[in-house]
Every structure is written in C-alpha cells, then in structure tokens.
Amino acid sequence: MEKSEHNARFIFATNSDLAKRVEAGTFRADLYFRINVIQIHLPPLVEIVLDYAGRDWLAEKGWDPALWCAPFETADPALCTNPLAEMILAGEVRDGTSVRISAIDGDITFNGKKPEFVHEGEFDMI
User: Which of 9, 43, 83, 84 has the most beta carbons within 10 angstroms of its beta carbon?
Assistant: First the structure.
C-alpha cells in the first residue's frame, strides 16, 4: 500500500453561538477549540423582528415563534415564509433592512401593513 499525503482545509458555518453551547455542555469543547481559528461574522441580509402581537398570532396558528417553525402537523409552513418571500421578490425588502412581523385586528402584518397577497382565511387551520 502506497502512502499518500493530503492537504485539506475546512470551513465551518453555524447560526448558533458555539461558545455558549460549550459552556452549557451541549457542544464538545475540544472540537470547538480545534475549529475556532478564525471567526467571520456575517450579518443577516434581512433581520426579522417579531413583536408580541405577531408572536401570539403565530402561536394561535400552531407555530412555535421561538423556533421560527411549525412543529405541529396542523400548522401551515407557508404562513410567514411565503408572504415574506413575496415581499423580498417584489423589492419591498432590501438587504440590510428589518421586517417587523406583527398582528393588527387579527391579521398578520409586515412592517405595519397586511400583504396584498394574503387573503381572508388563507391561513385558517384545517
């Protein structure tokens, strides 16, 4: 068997704070110190700000706002992602801006207005 040499470089990316996870004991400290050579922080292109009314509205629809997902089978995963994607594609949201998700009069709002493409009852539970 012939011996061969390899030169490899690895890039790791995460959206969680690994230092805090090491302190909490949920991430291996030895691995963290091996991969934590250079840190590059990339800010999100769009910051999503979820206020209390929006959080309550999402919870009513079966979402877990803390996890930003729909863990229950009854929740529609397109609830926020489709209207937000439509806003981005329509050019209403630019890189580096923030979108405030709220609820006014029982309807979801993005930056204070109800999206035109969200129709009455579109996200009602089945």
Answer: 83
SS3 80: helix
Half-sphere exposure of 5 (CA within 13 A, CB side): 1
Indicate the domain borders of the chain: 46-110
Say what the pTM is: 0.48
Contact between 78 and 84 (Cβ < 8 Å): no
Residue stretches of the chain with pLDDT short of 50: 118-126
DSSP, collapsed to helix, strand or coil, labels residue 122 as coil
**pLDDT reported for residue 67:** 59
Beta bridge partners of 108: 103
Residue 56, pLDDT score: 85
86: left (phi over 0), alpha (psi -120 to 50) or beta: alpha
Listing DSSP states for 51-110 in one string gives -HHHHHHHHHTT-BTTTTB--STTS-THHHHHHHHHHHHTTSS-TTEEEEEEEETTEEEE
For the domain made up of 46-110, the CATH class stated in words is mainly alpha
Residue 78 · residue 67 · CB < 8 Å = no
